[in-house]
Amino acid sequence: MKFLRQIRVRLMLWYMATIVILVVGVAIFAYARLHKYANRYADRLLDTEAAEAGVIFKDEGLDELKAEANLGKRHSTYYTLYDAQGKAVLNTFREEAPPLDAVKVKLEAEPTFDTETIKDEELRIITMTILAQNPEERYVMRMGRSIKPETRLVENLTENLVIFVPGILLISIVVGWILARASLKPMQRLSHEAARITEERLHERLPVRGVGDEIDRHAEVLNKMLAGLENSFTEIKTFAARASHELRTPLTALRLQIESALHAASAESRSTLESALGNLDRLAALVQRLLFLTRSKGEAADLEFKTVNLSELVSAVCTDAALLAEQKSVRLNHSVTANAAVMGDDALLTQMVWNLIDNAIKYSPAGKAIEVTVEKRSGRAVLAVKDSGPGIAAEDMPHVFEAFYRANRSSDVAGFGLGLNISKWICEIHHGSIDLVNNPDRGVTVEARLPLASGN
Amino acid sequence: MRILVIEDEKDVATYVAKALKEHGYATDIVRDGGQGIEKVTSQDYDLVVLDMMLPHTDGWDVLDAIRKSGKDTRVLVLTALDSTNDKVRALNRGADDYLVKPFASAELTARVRALLRRSKGETTSELSYADIKMDLVKHRVTRGGTEVELTNREFTLLEYFLRNPEQVLTRAMLIQHVWGYQFDPMTNLVDVYINYLRTKIDMEWPVKVIHTMRGVGYILSKEAPA
Predict the structure, then answer these.
(1) Distance (Å, rounded) from C-alpha A214 to C-alpha A187?
(2) B-chain residues near A294 (CB < 8 A)
(3) pLDDT 10s digits, B143-170
(4) N or C: which end of chain B has fewer CB within 10 A?
């Protein structure tokens, strides 16, 4: 069905349908006209011949008409002549002459026409009264003529149409397809060009050919949109830089001031100042994460991706995190396939892996285990972190990757609720995907999939 | 050792200078880039602490001017931008080190000391403090002549302490230098490792060398801090 949704295909079908209706219409019209014309021609011919026969009978008598009738047989013209008493005095038809009553001629009336098939021959038959030499005597003449020539004519046309109409249809499909393609080609080119302009290349514009057609108008509209987008992106970047400065400078001053005060502080104000420093660290960490998220993908595109051995990276983080897990009496098991290499930024990937494992440790109850695996699966390196925590309620599921969203798993767990959000962002700039599912038994599994580096 | 602080934010400049003076460095402050360039090129400073976001003449111009002057002045850049790109860009343009705001004064002074030491071209294959000895080549640690078995991470952690004795080391500094993480993992990772290190290097000895500075970080010192 997808095929039918293409404009190209629909255009072609419309074109075809139009041609079909036109051609079939013309064919039916031609057939009807020819058919009618052929019948009328046959009748007129019959009428003329009958009139001539009448004249022969009246002027030259029955014998002459008989001679004429015998001649007529050769071109499939047949005669019956009834005398005034209703007796057939002449019959050259290839069957017995029907009794006059069956002929039912209306005397003095206009000649009547009908069609009969006699011995496989389709005949047009005229019946009329004619005058004999003695003007008082009324004879009835029935004259039949084969309409084979006319039928042949119509049949011939039909045969031609049977070949001609499908031929036209075939041609119309081909022409329709070519036309639809040709008319959509500039559109296709435009969409191809537009697809090239990603977030990282927003400064580029679509070519306007200057023809002033619909395609050009489209390109102009899209270009205007791109300009707007580029502006917004630049604004976000500038905002991030300014916000960084504005937020971090006072934090710096505050930190240095508190530290300085700490040197000269009495024992009781010491602990206040120390806890102030702790809060300040938390605030600084929050600012750092927020700004990290504010940075556009455009900036991420400036990162130089290198080949990163994800297997080694995950193993290293696991080794570090194992001690943290131990503190909580949680086992951290890892099973990592060798040399799963991806293209990426080492620091960012470390952050992502760390976030995922750290989350699992935070939510794991004591005595349980966390399983970290790295596998190669259909061109991707798949990192899975499986915990045995409380899991995620169905209503929280759609929000787990949102900033500041902390599912009601445990209120006493430290953090801002940005870890998964940041991990998702990191995963996406590496052209990967991430999702979180509840395990059938207990806890959740977060799975991050990154494309393997080529040659892996 | 003379240090010039180029920073337009008064409070930051004052306290940076204060921290540096406390560590015995003669420190001057200028509040804009133009003056900064003039001072750096006309006088001899061993190190410049340079804020990148300055009004009028910004930090990049100052950095370029210093490098163009051909002086061997070390430059420690202070900035609010923390992406890897920003760091790489600053280092490529001639900065010697890079400190993201906000920072602890301990981190600032540690970086300054490291930069000034680097300019003297010090290299060593053995580190020591009190009765602790670390052989960097053989990867061995002894305390009072007794060998202490350390994991790689513990070794790097102790090495960082030994390279910065009697200085406060913040968790952020340790995370960055020992683990190489470019982000704050917001966990007690550092504390956990310090505890492991302590059980190996301090527990059985009467004199403790690794001390906690609450709210700030840790310090390697023979005497417990006040």
Answers:
(1) 9
(2) none
(3) 988 999 998 889 989 999 998 888 888 8
(4) C
